[in-house]
Every structure is written in structure tokens, then in C-alpha cells.
Fold these 3 entries.
Entry 1:
Amino acid sequence: MSTTYLDNYYARLGVPKNASAEEIRSAYHLAARRLHPDTSDDPTTTELFLQIQQAYETLSDRSKRKTYDASLPPDIDPPTEIMINSIYSRPALSHLQDSQLVYVLLDMMAKPSEETNEKNAPLNISLVIDTSTSMAGSRMDMVKASATQLLRQLRPDDSLAITTFNDRASVIVSASRNHDFKTLESQISLLTTGGGTEIYEGLKKGVAEVSRNLSLSSHNHIILITDGRTYGDEQKCLDLAGEISKKSVTISGLGIGSEWNDEFLDTLTAMTGGNCVYAQHPKEIRTYFEKKFTRLSNTFADKVSMELRTGKDVELRYAFRLSPDPAPLNTDGSITLGAIPLGPSLSVLLEFIVNPFDPDLDNVTLAEGGMDMYIPARQIPNLNSRFSFDRPVRMSPDPEPPPQALVKAMSRLSLYRMQDQARRELSNGEVEKATRRLQNLATQLLMSGQPELAQTVMLELKEIETGSLLNHEAKKKIKYGTRALLLPPGEDDLQQ
Amino acid sequence: MSNQCPNCHHHELEGALFCGECGTKLVEQSGLSTAQIPAVESPQEPVNPDIPHSPPPPTATIESPISLHIVDTGQSIPLVGRQEFTIGRISEGQAILPDVDLTPYEAYDRGVSRLHATVKLYPERFSITDLGSSNGTRLNNQKIAPHQEEFLSHGDIITLGKFKIQTLIRQEEE
């Protein structure tokens, strides 16, 4: 049996290979407190607990640990302060004439040492605000009120910058710490609207501002707020995001109303490990700001990314961040997974297609590569480690049902993917296919207790039937509505 | 080998969990959807907002000295009121009934015998004995010999056929 880099007992507990018995014990107790099945109905929690339990059983027994150590490749040393667990949809692959699928649920939980925990890394926030004509009225009022509130929450060593854009961009507040609240508040209150939406210029200035106080020991974040569609400069924006994706800066997006380009903003933010949220009503802007501030202040690691090479005959077909902030991930080249919060895990689902492979193989490597992340509160900010995912090959087909955690995640994710597929089909003119898929989606939504969302899908179907223009609002409601289904229970989202 | 959707007959690749066409689940159903009766009800302490996800220590919520936690559904069966519990499933015309009936959790499909094993409660410890079941019992993945008593620790995984149970033993606070 091979032991993969990310799926070893030390990584599961987040301890180094030379950890003392006491370190192992306390890591286990920490995990047990968070994950004990009695405290949660979530199957993911149960699966994780079992994985960690298994690791502890071996590592807490001196002779078992010795045998286990001997089976490990010599060059592994798992990252400490993070518990990394992987749950596979199948215990093994089988030899088939056809391609087959394997899902991997990768879970990373912060386990900060006391020293790291006490260090509260400062925020470096750059707001980039759309002030085009359409933002006038309640949208702008709400943005102003929310920005002011955010300002009041900042600590002296947090940095804030505000850039606005319409046809042109201007820096309203240059990145600075120790703010004079009164001056800043009046600057925010004086914001006016007018003109069109050109995101690139605003984003470029916003990037320049965040770069002023760019530091590996702070959380560097750009928040882009827009209600419109930018024309002609999308590629320039994406190129800029591509540059940023190599630095420790994350871009998040807030799209207000129905006119903004969600595909563009989703791609842009995903490239940097951020996510994009849909605010249907202006009043949701405030909730977004509040949540964002809490999230940023409670982040352990930023921009976890994987340089992933799939194995021979294997393709990574799909990647999706389940938690926090559910969002599809870019699968080409380096995948930016997002941030690891303090508390809940960073949880990512990977779908691999395994094409027919060499019948002599007894183990198939799904993917391997390096993993990177930024931990602002730590002295050694950049953490780098290797990983690999693989599965043994067996003669007989899988006897065991897949882990509950994966089935649950996929049951929600399959709905999101259905709307995604239907959207693609519609834009390719495959109306019949899309219609059938949306009908199925409505049925599934009804069955899973989502009558309102099902209703929205059915209304959209009617519009498609009459051949009317695409309804941007319905499309966004369905997209972000099905995405919100992946949020843990109790965490109400802006979309609901 | 094919993986055909029972609903829309779309062919999915082996290993798919849901049909990409109509969203129908393609893998074995489990009891999760009915798992709404938490066996253990105990007041949770208010969670410190600074540490959003750190529930009270596990041992604090278990009311009985030992509970059987059904891994696939997340339910727990507390064992109280006896010194010995037989575990199995009830089927028609059965003379001796098990104390703990696993039928509602698809025990038959997972190869649990009618009288599969017994759990004994001693003052300080607990044990499991396989009752010569057809599919055997494993303790932490090691097959145990029939009719031979094995002692249990907190967190042990008992597998009856393919039915996974975890033992949760109440421990005194450290």
C-alpha cells in the first residue's frame, strides 16, 4: 500500500513527523473537541473524525507508530498547524474498458499554535467601488453606510484604501493606517454617481493601493463592488488578476442587481482565491460587508494554491470549493483554493476522470504537485509542501458505498452543475437540451425542499418557451441560489 | 460495465455518484434522510464567539456510559438499563429478538446477522463478543474470533458484516 503525501497520519493531525507523544495527544484532543460525532449531524464531520481517530490510534502506540514510520517515504514532512484530510469516493479503482470517476474531498483545518493564535494579523483592504449612474440611490447609499461601518471596525494597524470608478477611476482614500475617522467619513459621504462602468481602470488603481501596504504578515484583500457590465476591458482585468494571483492578494466581488457580468466576476475572483456574491437587493450590501469583515478577521491562511499535475490517463474534470464561500475553481494550471478560516475547514471537492490505464498497474496516481499558502500570523509566512492523490487498483468492483460526506456534498453540487450545464447549452443554442435539464433541476429542487428556487427555474422555463430574451435576474437567482445550497445549515446567505 | 441512471437511462461513468442529466442519486441510499431524531439531547453550552467552532468536549454530551454511534447515519444508540445487549436485526419468525435492532439502518443489506454480537457492560469496562455471525465482526478492522470476548475502548470501530459502529464511552473529565 502506498502512502500519499497529503493522506498520511501526521498530516491528518497537523503535527510534524518528529512530534512528541504529548503533541500528538493534544492535536487529537483538539480535533475530537471540534469533530466528535455527538456534537454534529454533519457526515463530513463524522468522516473526518474517523480519519483522525485512525491516525491517532496508530501514532499514539509506540510500536504501531514505528512500523508506520517505516512505511512512509523518507522525504515527507507534513505542514504543521493545519490538519489535512482527504476522503475518497472509492477505496480502489477497477480495470475497465471505459473511463471512470473518482472524487476527492480535501479538507484543511487550521490548528494554530498558541503563539500564532495570539497574533492577530492586520487587514490591508482596498475597496473598489463602482459609481456609475446606475448605482445612484439606495445602492450607493447602502455602499456608503456599509463602508463607513467597516471603517469604524478597523483597528489602528489595519490599512484601508477606497477607489471609485465609472468611466474613469480615482483614489478617494489612499491606503493608510491610523485613520482619521471624521475626515474619512466625510470623504465617503461625498461620493457621487455618474457615467458608465469601466472596471479595469478602477481595479488597476485598487491594486496599486493594496500594494502600498502589501505585506506577508497581513491579509491583503481587494473588494470590488459593481452593478454593471464592463465592456471591452474584461481581458485586461483578467490579465491583471493573473498577475495578482502570484502575490498574496485576494480579490472578492459583490455584484448588485441583475446587470453585472457574473461569469466574468466569478472567473476574476476565482483566479485569486476569492469569491463573488450576488446582492439582489441593496439592503444585502450591508450584510455582505459585515460578513466579509468577520471572515477576513478570522482567517488563518490566505490563498492556498495547488500546482497540480494529473497522472497519466487522468484528468481533473471539475473542482469546487464547498466551504467557506462555495464557488467553482479554475482547473487549469495552478488551482487557487482560497483561504483557511479559523474554525471551519477549507473544504474542496475534486472530480477526476481516470481513462483506461495500463492493466499491470496496481496503483494509479490521480494527481501530484506542490501546495502553497500564506499564513500572515506566522513568522515563516510562506508554507510549501508536496502532495499526491492516488488509488490502488483492485480486481473486483467497489463493494462499499461511498462515504456519506461525499454523497451529501455531491447531492447539492449536482444541482449547481445542472444549472451551469443548462446555461452553457442555452448559450450554444441547444434549447431543447437546456429545457429538459432545467425541468429536471426544478424537480430535484422540489424534492430537496427548495420550492422557491424551483419556482424561479419554472418561470425561467416559461420565458425560454416563449423565446423571449434571457432573463439576467432569474439566471443569477438560480446560479447563486443553487450555490447557496452548499452552505452549512444555519449559515443564511445573501442569496436566500 | 455501465452505470445507468434508473430515472432517465442516461449512461454515467463508473464511479459517478449522481446522474449529470437529471440529478438522480446513483449510489446506494442510506438512512441519512430519516436521521432526524438525535439520540442524545443535552443542552449545549453557549459557544464563545471568538472560537466559532469549538463545541464542548465530546465526553460531556454522552448520557449513558456507552453509546453505539452508527457511522453511516450519524445516529447514536445509548446503552442503558442492562448489563448485556445483543445486537442484530429482527426478521419474520425469529424466536429470540436482539436488544438492539439495527433493521432501520439497512442492517440486512450490510450483512448483519439476526443475533450478531453482544456488548457487555462491566463496572469499569465494556466488551464485545461475536455470536458466530455469518459475516463476522471486526474490531478496528481486525477480525475477532467468534464467541471470544474483546474489550472496547472509546472510539473503537466495530464492523458487523459491513455495518460500521463506533463506540463512544463516557469518560470522566480530566
Entry 2:
Amino acid sequence: MGKPRIINNIRRLRFDTDEMTQKTLAEKVGVTRQTIVAIENAKYSPSLELAFLIAEVFGKPLEDVFRFEKE
Amino acid sequence: MTHQERNNLVAIINSLLVTGFFATRIFQMYQQGAFEGPDGLAIWAQTVLWIIPASIIGSIVLTILFNIFYAIATNNSKPSFVVDERDKMLSNRSMITTMIVVSAGFILSLVALAFGWPSFVVLNMILLSFAVGDLIGSLVKLVMYRWGA
């Protein structure tokens, strides 16, 4: 059984949303830019609350932003 | 670099400087025979207690200097001081690492004492385990910030 991980489309969604910067997204959800970088690179899995906040910024359901898959 | 990363770097430098200074000082005093005699452990404890204010003052001075140089180097007069969930998670993991190292050092010290090692040496082993635990915790945090948790 492979190690499960959470992947996301945040980078693409930022680009589609008027080319939003990582810093802008970070300020909107109340985290540092480095945390957004870590999330985009799948080096950090956000809490449920943060995941919902990010999805709300893009106006998308949670499953359109984050995906759970096993390697 | 986030505010917490900068603080962590300052903590590592401060830990190395303070530990290095007091280790050297205690060793010099030991060679001079300052810890021999009935008051030897009391003199050792008085020397070690100075680590607390030295660490605090060192941390404050280094934090101020580091943030000034960082602001100049990055040309950013308004650095962010946000502490988010990732910072808190990494702090918790760092603390767990520190506790494990300190606990291991303490147990080793007890074993040494059980085997008849001098109490002066054992007390220094306990002190060293705190210093090493603190340093390793900060280094683990640095690694997690740079390469992910």
C-alpha cells in the first residue's frame, strides 16, 4: 500500500484568478507566504479549516482544490 | 524567511555562543581547581545559574541585530510577524525532539551515577543534555522549514 498524500491545484487556481500571487493568497487566508509555498509543493498538508479557507478564496468546492491519493 | 524561521536561527546562534562560552568557562574553572572542596558543587551551580540571564540577554540582542540586518539585506522595512499553523506544528515537533534528547541525556546521567561516576561529571552531563537537546530541536526545526515536515 503506497503512502497517501494530499495534492492540490492551488498554483493553477491562483493563475486563473487574475494571476493571484502567493503573498496575496497568504494574506487572504491568514498564513505566511512560505506556508502557501509548502502547501503548493505538497510539503505541508493544511488543516481542514485552512483548506476550506483556501477553497473559499477561489470560490470552489474543497474537492476541486485538494485531492487525496495514494502513491 | 518567516518571522519564526528568523527566531529559530537566532536561537541556534545564541545556543552555540552561550553554551560555548559557559563550557569554556566551567572547564577553565575546573582546571584551576575551583570545584574541588566542600563548596565545589555550590560554586558550579552559581556559575551555571548565570546561563539564564546570559541566554535571555543574548537572545534579545541577537534578535534585534538579526532583524535589523535582515531588513536592510532584503530591503524590507516592514517584515511580517505572522505566526501560523505550520509554525506552531513545527514548534511542537521541535519541542518533542528536544524532550527526547534531554530525557535520553538524563537517563544516561543516571546510569553514569549508578556506575559510580563523580557527581560533578554527572551534573555536567545533565546540563549538556539540555544544551544539546535545545540545539538539536532548533536544528530539526530548521531542516523542517527548509525541506518540509
Entry 3:
Amino acid sequence: MSNGKSILVDTSLCTACRGCQISCKQWNNLPGTKTKQLGTYQNPQDFSSDTWKVVRFAEGKKEDGKPYWYFFTDMCRHCIEPPCMYSIQNFVKDAVVRDESTGAVVYNEKTKTVPFKEVLCPYNIPRQNPKTKVLAKCTMCFDRIKNDMIPGCVKSCPTGAMVFGDREKILEMAKKRVADLKKTYPKAVAINPDEVRVIFIVTDDPKKYWKFAAGG
Amino acid sequence: MTNHWIDLQHSDCLLIQGSNCAENHPIAFKWVMKAKERGAKLIHVDPRFTRTSAKADFYAPIRSGTDIAFLGGMIKYIIENEKYFKEYVVNYTNAPFMVNDKFDFNDGLFSGYDPGTRKYDKATWTIKKDDKGIAEKDPTLQNPRCVFQLLKKHYSRYDMDTVSKITGTPVKDLQTVYEMYSATGVPDKAGTMMYALGQTQHTSGVQNIRTMCMIQLLLGNMGICGGGINAMRGEPNVQGSTDFAILSDILPGYLAAPRASLPTLDDYLKKNTPKSSDPRSANWLQNYPKYTVSLLKAWYGDKANKDNDFGYSLVPKLDDGQNCTILNMIDNMYEKKIKGLIVIAQNPACSLPNANKVRPAFTNLDWMVHVNIFDNETSSFWKGPGMDPKKIKTEVFLLPAAASVEKQGSQTNSGRWVQWKYEAAKAPGDCIYTGDIVIRLVSKLKELYKKETGAFPDPIINLTWDYTDDKGRFDPVKVAKTINGYFLEDVTIADKTYKKGECIPSFAMLQADGKTSSGCWISCGSFAQDGTNLMARRKKDDPTGLGLYPQWSWAWPVNRRIIYNRASVDLNGKPYNPKRPLLAWVDGKWVGDVPDGPWPPMSDLEKGKYPFIMKPDGVSSLFGPGLGDGPFPEHYEPLEGPMEKNPLSSQLKNPVMKIFSGPCDLFAGCDPKYPFVMTTYSSTEHWCSGAMTRWQSWLTEAQPQVYVEVSEELAQLRGIKNGDKVKVESARGSLPCVAMVTTRLRPFNCGGQTIHLVGMTYNYGWLFPEDSGDSCNFLTPTAGDANTMTPEYKAFMVNVVKI
């Protein structure tokens, strides 16, 4: 297997326009779910079998007393050694496929017999369809990639916060970008680049963005 | 925009004030991020910490409605710390010009104010001219009566403590912004100012923007790559709609609307054609007669000739003092003076201020024609909350329209690029082009006027109406070519003969004798002489390397990508910024962007012209007598404000704005019942009143219901928790909604007075989804800018209580 593909998510460029959240639903034929305004811009509140990409909004006060507002466009990291895959395969061998050429971790309908609470994920990604019991999450738009298209979320990103490409290239970009960002943001870091295919860059403590940003 | 979207990347410092660019122009914001990647600093000045602030290098809070104080303080800082670009200011602005000895400013009022009429007599707001009619100047800028010294004196009152007391911006934040931004006042740095409705939607909105322009002139940022004053237009084609006179005081191409006191074409042209005695001033608008006559020829064809004033008498005239802007329109409708209304692609029941006035006003109509892609709160007003359909006589016709992507035609972006687009999909069912609806309507009117005559049939009967293809359908290319204009006879200009029927390649070829037509002079040249549609060009050549892309679409005027670009060079035509040379005079010709006129640089004392060719004096106006509320912007409080006194003068509010006084026009400034400032806006996820986007489940999932953003401090004061149901009330109406308690809003300290500010989006309406809530425009006042009547959506007073 080649080194496959990767996605770089540079949160310093993300404006939380949520184009990615919507385009994910559009490409994957996922419905808009019924939500309520609960006192936050974030909606839906979390992943579900109908929501595989959520832009998480986190706000607070900086040391100088001025506000910060961090955006974290959460999605499956497509781990190099995916705990979910191994835990699911303990129950049903072929309910998860790791695509050879991209490295995308893709679930299928056979996940419905897997006991959901036994599925391990440090990033708290997979969700179960309450009716069909099928497990669901991001597919890296594996079907688009096979047809020479980039993932829907990356395609929709206006600021270049998300980039898709060969893993080596993405790793190199991440390194360079972190070095650049460190000049302004000393805490800039790429999250677990050696362990995941979807690599987030943050400029502050990952926990300030989302409690599972760097894994739990 | 004086510049264009792609050009933002060349800026060294971007000041976004009065805009939430990241949320409301999310795609275009990539050019801001690109500038940042190239090392530029981004400053955001806003009442709320938004998604734009989250990306800024520096954020400064400002109490809504106090931009002139904030920016006036910057003018003082620039002048007193000598941060201005002196050579530019002396040569390219009216800073050295001497002002009328009788011009004066005292305690918030300029000379000539009449409190009875609430208007100024502008007789003293003039520049002193010598016996040849040329402006008297002091190039040393020392004479106390020159513009520069008067400007300095005017803003000397805007010291940081006073500004902070008004704006609520901490002094150290003011200092940081002033320092960061005024660092661009050197030849090789560029600063850009970006604004949107956050500047315009105030009773002193135009003056807000003028203050920004003045700063750009002082710093030499106008006409240069990475600089300019950039209005980010809110809709894909709103620039186009303005160019084509969607406003009631203009004709296409920003020509003045005729007035009843100007009964002949000669009267109209005399009144509107500027004069200059200075041989070095191009005074481009001396061509007014050519543009006017060509427009009349486009409208009335053979029926427009020298003997009948080219049909000028057929054009509707406004009475003197008559103002037909939307606030007055609703006022007249409320007073039962308007019987019918055609609404195209709008949702005024939700988008206009004071919905408790607007919605009842609709019930006074005999008929309403509504052209839209969806039903909305306007077309269904008769079954809305509080309405009894049995008691409403209004007959509503809802005509299904094709959506923008289902239509061929031009679309003009904020950067003045007129881009031709094709039908991406056929419109479904009976939906047709709005153009077809207008074609059918006018054709029917012509038929009826011919048959039944009526009071004054000539303007309708004589109207040229040849805009359909061979199948009788609206033909956008025919319309666009009429807008560009034709030679109606063979015309010879400077040894070159243009044949009858050819397209006009530039407005420089338009004639005042009826031999040319053009439906909008600034659009001349959008077609080449041979009829090639230049708006449809898609070539990516970039000869300057500055992202001007001269062969991608077409920009007005004459494909110039950055206007006033001759101000980017010194008197010898040498670029001030060698790193980004927008224009340069090389071997006797201009190289770079399309120059603002062909003349050589100003060091050529015989042929050189001043760079600001649209101004009669050829230079830009730091002293600008054109507006109704003063030649220098002055801070006044919004119509409804929290301050009892204006620290700068005893003039609390804009002295010339119109005050509405009908039964629905209730106001409550400094009233303990409505103690909080409110501002309104839009979100990324919904489009304007949400009439298009609320039907889209992915978008309503992301932003489902109406909410009010409040600070933690205000929440504590009112016992509100995040997500609680609250009621927001103003003197005009109230609205239940969800409270969003956030650290992103904080109370302002205005000279010891704590002022809370809350905010709501106007994205919702009662029609759909059922539980989304209604429009925040139940709260907004019927108040408009003193010059344009743009509603003051951005600053007024409310109360918030838990329910």
C-alpha cells in the first residue's frame, strides 16, 4: 500500500462558514435534522448518523481579557491504525473496509450487528443509527476520490483551511505551516500527524477547541 | 469598491469597520486571509466579536453608531503625528485650497443652518476662486483658512479621551488601531478600508464612509494597489442594480433624476453639468450632455430628436424636495396614498424597518404583484400574525420567477466586474425570467395606452421596446447591447469612422447630438465595436502580476480595475510603490492598468491633468460640500441613543435627518424603559430575510431560530441564562426569541457610563419554519440617513426581559 491520502485542516484559516458541514450532507444525501437554538452558533450540537461533520464553536476570554472564538470542523481522522476498525472486526470481520489506495476507513451495513459501546474511538466519532443500528461516520468521500474528485468538505472550503492530497505532501505542508504559525502563535501545533490522516493544526491548547480534538 | 476583491491580498493593513466580512462575504474573505498570509495585519472594529474578529490580528470594540468619532480621532492622530503622505495630500487633494471666509463651524453646526427647515444653505461651503475662476491655494498648508488647517481644527476636538467616552473603545485600543493603520501613510505601504451595511445603515451613514475616504486620502491610500475604499456589496448583483438606477434619485449611470423645476433638457443639463475654469482639470463630467442624450436615444429611439429635447419631457420628474426612497414609500402607503405595489425579489415585510408599520401599510393596497422564487412573508402578509384575511381587500398576485442561476445575463460584483453568465439550469414549471415578466407587462401597457390613450400616453407609447428574440422571449443580449449603445449614424472621431449599427467601444465616443445611444454610459465598452461580448471573457492573463486579469470579464469604467489609479504615481508618472506598480509613465505612454484618462503625468505643465478626473477641481475632496449634513463629517448620536449629551457639541442628533411623525413612528432615546443599544445583522447561514434559505433544511438545521446575543454581564443583570426564552422590546414592537449569552459581547464603558449592547439577525419570519420566530424588524425605527434615507438598522434602543 502507498502512503495514501491525507487532509490538512488548518484551523487558523477556518472562518466557520460551515460550507464543509453542508457539503458533507449534500454529497452524502444526509437530511437536515430538526434543531433548536440553544444559545450557540453550533448546530447540530453533535455528530449523529445523519451528521458526519460538525463545526464546533468554542469561546472564552484570553489573558488580555479580550474574547477568543475557536472553530473546529470536526470529522473522522481516518487513523493509520484505526481503533474503531479493530474493535469492530472483533465482532464482524468485513463490516469495515480500509481502502488500499487512500487509507480511508469506511463502514458498511454489516456494522448493524456490532455492539456500539464496544467500538473504540479516541476522537468520539462513530454514531449509530437509532433505527437501523448501522454505524455511520465520514468516508473521506472515498467515492468521490475514486472518481478523481476531492472530498466534498475540502471542495467547499473558501479559505483553503482544508487541503486534500498525497499523505507525504500533506505532512510536509503541515510541518511548514506550523513553523510559519509559530512565529505569531507559539502554541501552534499539528495534532497527532503520525497517527491520523486528517491532521488538524491549532494555534492554542487543543482542549480549548474541543475536548476530543487531540483524542480522549 | 474603488479596487476589487483580488486586490485585497496586496494590502499591508486591512481595516474592516462596519462589516462582518468573514460571515457575510465568506468566499471573498479568502483574499483577506491571503493578505494575512503575505504578512498583512487585519484590524476589526465592531460592536461584537464575530467570526471576522476571530481571524483579526487586532480587535477593537465600538459602540454602534459612533464611527465618525472613532475615525475622526484617527484623522486627528494622523495630522498631529504627521503620519499623512504630504506630497499626495498637497498635489492630489483639496487640502491646500482656500475656503470661503464666511464658512464656519460652531457647536456641532456648520454655517448656514436653518432649524425651521432642518436644512443648510450651503452658500458658504465653497472654495475661494481667483479672478480666472481657479481655486486659491496654499501649498504649504499653513494658511489657517486652507482646507488642511480647517480639517485639523475640526478634528482637534476628537482627542482620545473624548472619543473613548463616545465610542466606549478603551483608549489603548484606539491608540493601537490608529498606530497600526496610519503606518500605511508612506509611499510603499498600502492600507485598505472595507465596509458594508455597518457603515451605511445609520442616520449619519454617508458621513461615516466619507470619514473613511478622508483617512485614505490623508494616507495616500486611494488609487493604489492594495488600497482604496471598498464597499462590500451584499448581493451578487447589487452593484449592477445600483449602476442601473435602482435608487429613486438617479437615472442609469448615476445621472441625476430629472426634477419638475427643470422642465427642459437645457435646464437639466445646466443644473447637472459641472464646470471648471482650470485648464489642468479634466472635469470629465463636462460630458454630462453626451451621456444624457445617448440615454434618451436608447429609451426613445427615433422618437427622440433635437426638436423635442430628445424626449426629455417624456421622462418622469420628481417634485423639488420629493423623496421617493423606501421609508417614504411605506409612509405614503400607510397614509393610503399608494394603491398598488410591485415587489420583485424582495421580502419587505421582514426586511424593512418597523414591521408594525410596514405590514399594516400593505393592507391599504388595492393590489400587490409579487415576483419571487418562493412564497414569503410579504406575498402572504394577509394571513400573517395579527391579520384578518376577511378584512383585507388587497389582491395579491404571486408570479413564479426563475432563480439567478436559471438566467442568462450579466452580474456585477463589488469590484465592478461585469461578468456574463449562462443558464445553469432551466427554470422549473411556469417560472420565467423577471425580464419576461417586465416585457409582457410593458407590452400590455403599450397596447392599452394605444387603445384607450389615458392622461399622458406618450412616455409609454414612444418607449423603444425591442428586447425580444424571434420567439418573443426576453433577449438579455439585446438588452445588454442597448445598454452598451450603438452608433446610430456614421460618426467620425479623431480621423476614425465608426459605422452606423456598430457598438460604442468607449463612453469617450458618445455624442450629444443624437448620433449615439447608450442605456448606461458607464457600461459603454462592455461590447467591442464588432459586437463581441467582453463581459463573457474568461482569459486569465495577468500582465502586471497584480491580479488585475484585464481579460477576465469586463469592469466599468472602460475596463479600469482600480479607479483613481493616476494617484498611484508621482508628478512624473513614477509609481509611488515600486513593489506594486499599478501604473507607470514609460517612454511617453502609460503601462499597467487602464489609466484614469490618457493625459501625460502632471509634470507636463501643458498637457498633464489632475488625477481625480470626476471632480470638477481634479483633486479629491477633503472638504466636500456635496452632502446635506456638512463638508466635514461630525459625530452625532443615532436617532435613538443611550447618551443624554454629545460630548462634542450640544447637537445630539444629525441636524438634517428627516424625523417621521406618524402614529407608528415611535422613538425612545435615553428612556429607562429601553436601556440597551441594539444592532441588527445577518448570519452566514441565511440570506437576508431568510426568504430563500429558510426552506433549505441544511441551513435551518445550522441556524434554526431567532436569537438575541447578550453579554454575560447583561444576562446577570436580567437573570437570563444561556438558551432562555426572552422578549426583546422597543418603542415600536416586541419579539420573543432565544437568548445567546456570550463572552463575545461586552458592556461599553462610555466615560463612566456602562452601556450594554445586544444584537439580532434579521434572518427569520413567521411563514417557515413554523417555530423559527419572526423578524427583528418589529423593533427597528423608521429613521434614515440624512443624505440617502438608508434605514438606521444598526443602532437603536431596546429592553430585554426573561419570559
